[in-house]
Design brief:
The protein is an alpha+beta fold. Among the domains are: 163 residues, 3-Layer(aba) Sandwich (Glutaredoxin), CATH 3.40.30.10; 93 residues, no CATH class; 82 residues. The protein has 27 helices and 21 strands. It is globular.
């Protein structure tokens, strides 16, 4: 390695993704005024490259093109080159991705876009190979053609970019069109259920053939649909679809059976061969979804998976300050001596390795059976590898196995003449030994940036699992992370959230020279996390902070003309468009989650204007919700919450009393998606009593912890037994 030949301005950045490019021959600039000024002054086009640190094709394009001296020279001579980490600047990414999708019909990362000096896009794409091939133009050719165009036809290019921008402005607008009311929830729910069941895979679960994504937004919608139609065949079908999908995912190779947690998505229909990166936002949402599955079904299998995810995050994605890291990469060096990284190298196994690690004969099994035989049979391991060449275009997984549960415990036990009860311990021993062997391998790259939004999703995962599984340590971990947000990603003087912070030298937490201000999704996911954390811990300070952040969100992002919230705030001249996302994807879109946040905020504060805002968001998205709710399953779910009216479950009692705890345990053990929980502890000077005068009239019956079910601040008769309370929560 020695001294790098090149160093560019990215060396001063904090983002792990930008730092990966600091020694390219390309003279990269970060997104900012210095680069914009240079483009204007020298009248040069801008080449904008957007990616993120765990993106496989971003690594490929860097290796092939951005490390190539000749391509570096062409770029430096003709363009001002800007590198953006889309996880730091989702606003910049979204503007230009909207353009790339509109003009090329597809999108993805790395995203490559060429802009005029005033930042208007005129041509774009994703990954380009370095040289021309039979079907694709190479990156070098594209660069030379574009530079030529700029010399010869500058005016035409500028005029064209202006037209493109106007078309984008027009097509990306989401607003209320005349009709002011939210769409009817029955129809929206029914259409969304229909669209999901049409795309459902009966055999393997999930909602597409391949690739298959773990879409928690779809599963949460189905749980809600079941809760509203428990006694109908459709309700039963919705629940079956969700639970079967969660089971198949947990058995699949998308689930890391040795190192815990879930990979990003599966390349095949069977959840078998994944893209191996692990993202924080998936772990947070899946921990919550598996906890709900346990609440509904009572099946310990789902509780175990939730705990498995939280073990992974606590061990591998946690900073000592309490924050959570963003992601682990898919690619790593197969051995310490390897010269190049391979996708999945950290996670896959040759049959030979497993035999060597698990040679012990198994007592009580068919003669000659080794632990390796049992393990390999159960996890679908083949001598020649179990990855089909179709799913391995670069032959990185040749001869290797991705573990996938192929048999029920009963079947595996029967195959080797074992008592079924003994299998669990044998498999556990096998997993532990493989885990110890894997710890000797070089680890994949860890993206140690900490994002407010994704930390919010993870706090919700810990808080909801803590409540549903009655595990206090998860609630404490959620509180530790919320305290981290307050300390490192919140500015108490301005009352605003920050987007990101970073692990610095000596494990300190660092901030960039000019901190990135929080976006809509940061506010929305953090507010949701604080409500979840209040319900799990009943610590009122989290509630107070949530309502303060909600008021700030309204101020920075609300669109008073067209309704709903913009993704980014006004006043940044380098952003050509203020957009509103309209798709619940790997993460739910912020406007979808904020509908439920606003309804919860109104219940805790008595401010009914928040209910009105929730209705206005649904009205703004009304057309999409009625035609293709499958694109917005989280917002479809929220229409039901809106029309059902949230029930306030108030427990009056001493927080330390055993009777109060028993009542709370009852509330947490029931899946009741349209309720908010609050504890009336009798402290009339406390935050909740000041917000909600009606609490003062509720009292403990016969001195016992007492529950009331209230709707619009009007309450039912009091109950003092958990059985009665359960009956009220599950009508």
């Amino acid at each position: 390695p020695g001294i790098p030949r090149h160093t560019n301005r990215l060396i001063k950045e904090k983002s792990p993704y930008l730092l990966q490019h600091a020694h390219n021959p390309v003279d990269w600039y970060p997104w900012g005024q210095e680069a914009f000024d240079k483009a204007k002054k020298e009248n040069k086009l801008i080449f904008l490259s957007v990616g993120y640190s765990t993106c496989h094709w971003c690594h490929v394009m860097e290796e092939e093109s951005f490390k190539n001296e000749e391509i570096g020279e062409i770029l430096n001579k003709n363009f001002v080159c800007i590198k953006v980490d889309r996880e730091e600047r989702p606003d910049v990414d979204k503007v230009y991705m909207t353009f790339v999708q509109a003009t090329s019909g597809g999108g993805g990362w790395p995203m490559s876009v060429w802009l005029t000096p005033d930042l208007k896009p005129f041509v774009g794409g994703t990954y380009f190979p370095p040289e021309d091939g039979i079907h694709r133009v190479g990156f070098r050719t594209v660069l030379l053609r574009i530079a030529e165009q700029w010399k010869e036809n500058k005016d035409a290019l500028l005029e064209n970019s202006q037209k493109i921008l106007e078309a984008l402005l027009h097509s990306s607008e989401i607003r209320v069109r005349g009709q002011e009311s939210p769409p009817p929830s029955k129809e929206v729910m029914a259409t969304c259920f229909q669209q999901l069941s049409n795309s459902y895979d009966e055999n393997y679960g999930g909602f597409s053939e391949s690739p298959k994504f773990p879409t928690p937004v779809n599963l949460n919608f189905l749980f809600m649909y079941w809760a509203l139609h428990r006694t109908t065949p459709e309700g039963a079908q919705a629940l079956q679809m969700a639970l079967h999908t969660l089971k198949m995912m947990a058995h699949g190779g998308i689930h890391d059976h040795i190192g815990q947690g879930f990979h990003r998505y599966s390349t095949d229909q069977h959840w078998h061969v994944p893209h191996f990166e692990k993202m924080l936002y998936d772990q947070g949402q899946l921990a919550a979804t598996y906890s709900r599955a346990f609440q509904i079904s009572g099946d310990e299998f789902f509780a175990d998976v939730a705990q498995d995810i939280l073990l992974y995050v606590s061990r591998d994605l946690s900073d000592q300050s309490g924050g959570f890291y963003s992601a682990e990469d898919a690619d790593s060096y197969p051995t310490a001596a390897s010269g190049e990284k391979r996708e999945g190298a950290f996670c896959v196994w040759a049959a030979e390795e497993i035999r060597t690690l698990l040679p012990d004969l198994v007592e009580g099994a068919t003669e000659g059976t080794t632990l390796g035989d049992v393990f390999m049979y159960h996890y679908g391991v083949k001598e020649t590898g179990n990855v089909s060449p179709m799913k391995d275009p670069h032959q990185e997984l040749k001869g290797k196995n991705v573990l996938i549960v192929r048999c029920s415990p009963e079947l595996t036990a029967a195959q080797f003449g074992l008592e079924p009860g003994r299998l669990g311990a044998l498999l556990r021993e096998g997993r532990q030994r493989l885990s110890a062997a894997r710890a000797q391998r070089p680890r994949p790259h860890l993206d140690t940036k900490m994002l407010a939004a994704w930390n919010g999703l993870m706090i919700s995962g810990f808080a909801q699992a803590g409540a549903a599984l009655a595990k206090q340590e998860y609630v404490s971990r959620a509180a530790q992370a919320a305290a981290f947000l307050q300390r490192h990603l919140f500015d108490p003087t301005s009352g605003r959230l920050l987007r990101s912070c970073y692990r610095g030298k000596d494990n300190t937490v660092e901030q960039s020279a000019v901190p990135i201000q929080g976006f809509l999704e940061d506010y929305v996911f953090v507010i949701q996390a604080l409500f979840d954390l209040y319900e799990a811990s009943l610590e009122q300070s989290w509630l107070e902070w949530a309502l303060q952040l909600q008021r700030m969100q309204d101020k920075l992002f609300w669109d008073p003309k067209g309704f709903a919230y913009f993704s980014s705030e006004a006043g940044d001249p380098s952003l050509l468009l203020r957009l509103k996302d309209d798709q619940d994807g790997a993460e739910p879109t912020a406007n979808s989650v904020t509908v439920t946040n606003l309804l919860r905020a109104a219940c805790y504060s008595g401010h009914t204007e928040w209910v009105e805002k929730a209705g206005q968001i649904l009205a703004a998205f009304s057309e999409r919700l009625q035609k293709i709710p499958i694109a917005l399953p989280e917002m479809a779910r929220a229409t039901a919450v809106f029309h059902q009216t949230l029930k306030q479950v108030v427990i009056c009692g001493d927080p330390q009393g055993a009777d109060t705890r028993e009542m709370l345990r009852c509330v947490h053990s029931v899946f009741s998606p349209n309720k908010v929980l609050m504890l009336a502890d009798g402290d009339s000077a406390g935050f909740l009593y000041r917000q909600l005068p009606f609490l003062a009239s509720l009292e403990r019956k016969d001195g016992k912890a007492t529950a009331y079910l209230c709707s619009n601040f009007t309450c039912s008769l009091p109950v003092t037994s958990p059985q009665e309370l359960r009956g009220m929560l599950c009508p």
